[in-house]
């Protein structure tokens, strides 16, 4: 995380992200090792769990890494959030329109997984997409690519809260990529999360001022890769653009 100077900002006061949150996310290392097939933004076809069971996006993988992060050296350094990225869902919603984790890879369900992560003193995050599908092709938050509101946002926010989810990362595949479409949709999702009454850290790739009022974090640049060059490139981009694009003015506790 970058350390940025304090400036006046309009922050979401939902009790979380008062300091920069620290944690781990499945995507950088494990991508979409799940059901196989092509993944938008992944650059190549992803393996299936049958081909690569040790790296499968699954309940086993999340529990394994939760147990690592719960060790004193990680907790003492401030690591708290364990985040499941794309490819955790069933391929389709239930007949009632609700999301569900893949029943083979998450056999005990998301509520049981969240309870286990919480029992270790950690928090569980997950992922969805402001589009008709996630980047991996699983169900998204929108019913059409123009993201006609409210889509599935209200029912999904209630689902995440019922599972005990502490953080939600929102992506932006399979939708019309204009501020006129995405800004209102991300606002709607943030407001739906806040209405559940469960404090959950929201992350969205959107106008920084809008994000600061309704979510806790923003997506600002390309996916991080497994190299120093990727990390330094992101740092350089932020250093070059943070003031001009409004990021500095919007940052602050919450």
From TrEMBL:
Q: What InterPro entries does its record include? A: Aldolase_TIM, GH, Glyco_hydro_27, Glyco_hydro_27/36_CS
Give the domain of life.
Answer: Eukaryota
Its GO biological process annotations read: glycoside catabolic process; oligosaccharide metabolic process
For this protein, the Enzyme Commission number is: 3.2.1.22
Catalysed reactions, as listed in the record: Hydrolysis of terminal, non-reducing alpha-D-galactose residues in alpha-D-galactosides, including galactose oligosaccharides, galactomannans and galactolipids
Q: Name one GO cellular component term.
A: cytoplasm
Which keywords does this Swiss-Prot/TrEMBL entry list?
A: Disulfide bond, Glycosidase, Hydrolase
Extract the GO molecular function terms from the UniProt entry: alpha-galactosidase activity
PANTHER family listed in its UniProt record: ALPHA-GALACTOSIDASE, ALPHA-GALACTOSIDASE/ALPHA-N-ACETYLGALACTOSAMINIDASE
What protein family is recorded? Belongs to the glycosyl hydrolase 27 family.
Q: Kindly provide the name given to this protein in its UniProt entry.
A: Alpha-galactosidase
């Amino acid at each position: 995380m970058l350390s940025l100077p304090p400036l006046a900002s309009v922050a979401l006061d939902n009790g979380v992200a008062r300091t920069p949150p620290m944690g781990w996310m499945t995507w950088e290392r494990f991508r979409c090792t799940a059901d196989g097939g092509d993944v938008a933004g992944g650059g190549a076809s992803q393996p299936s769990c049958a081909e690569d069971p040790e790296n499968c996006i699954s309940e086993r993988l999340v529990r394994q890494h939760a147990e690592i992060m719960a060790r004193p050296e990680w907790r003492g350094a401030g690591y708290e959030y364990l985040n499941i990225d794309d490819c955790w869902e069933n391929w389709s919603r239930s007949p009632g329109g609700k999301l569900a984790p893949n029943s083979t890879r998450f056999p005990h369900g998301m509520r049981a997984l969240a309870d286990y992560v919480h029992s270790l003193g950690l928090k569980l995050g997950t992922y969805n997409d402001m589009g008709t599908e996630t980047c991996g092709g699983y169900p998204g938050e929108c019913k059409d690519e123009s993201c006609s509101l409210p889509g599935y946002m209200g029912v999904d926010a209630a689902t995440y809260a019922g599972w005990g989810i502490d953080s939600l990362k929102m992506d932006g595949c399979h939708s019309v990529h204009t501020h006129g479409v995405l800004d209102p949709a991300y606002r709607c999702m943030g407001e739906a999360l806040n209405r559940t009454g469960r404090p959950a850290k929201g992350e969205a790739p959107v106008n920084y001022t809008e994000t600061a009022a309704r979510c806790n974090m923003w997506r600002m640049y390309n996916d991080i890769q497994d190299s120093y060059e990727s990390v330094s490139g992101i740092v350089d981009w932020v250093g070059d653009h943070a003031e001009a694009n409004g990021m500095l003015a919007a940052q602050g506790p919450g």
